[in-house]
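Key result, reporting period 2: structure in, sequence out.
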């Protein structure tokens, strides 16, 4: 049971760092963003988020400042480096991020197919997706 709690804590830590990579936020914004991303299924408590933010600050990954009566948290340079890899945990926010993900998966499929493991069904799906992307690129 302890390992599940530890893994959940590491996941939350990763999500918070990835969120702060997008933009500086107050603790309540972090809570609301996690709730939004989970479509209301999970709303971490203030008793979880604020101690985590304090710990991340103590570790030198996050710094905070008072703005308009709220404590705003942002990544340090060290936090940026760590969060860069974790940002992939979050759903894309913009068309550019979606296109970056598509490009990464295309590269993966190319490498995978070079090992001759891409089956007929997968090749048909690739063709269908390519056609969808082609049509989307032609829309005005």
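The corresponding designed sequence is given below.
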């Amino acid at each position: 049971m302890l390992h599940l709690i530890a893994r959940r804590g590491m996941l939350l830590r990763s999500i918070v760092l990835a969120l702060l990579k997008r933009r500086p936020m107050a603790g309540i914004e972090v809570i609301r963003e996690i709730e939004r991303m989970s479509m209301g299924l999970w709303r971490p408590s203030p008793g979880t988020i604020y101690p985590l933010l304090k710990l991340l600050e103590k570790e030198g990954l996050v710094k905070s400042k008072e703005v308009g009566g709220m404590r705003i948290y942002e990544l340090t340079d060290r936090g940026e480096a760590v969060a860069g890899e974790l940002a992939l945990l979050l759903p894309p926010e913009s068309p550019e991020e979606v296109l970056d993900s598509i490009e990464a998966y295309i590269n993966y499929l190319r490498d995978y197919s070079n090992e001759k493991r891409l089956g007929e069904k997968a090749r048909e799906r690739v063709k269908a997706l390519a056609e969808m992307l082609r049509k989307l690129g032609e829309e005005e």
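The chain has a mean pLDDT of 85. Helices lie at 2-22, 27-37, 46-58, 77-86, 95-114, 120-138. This case is discussed further under Risks and Mitigation.
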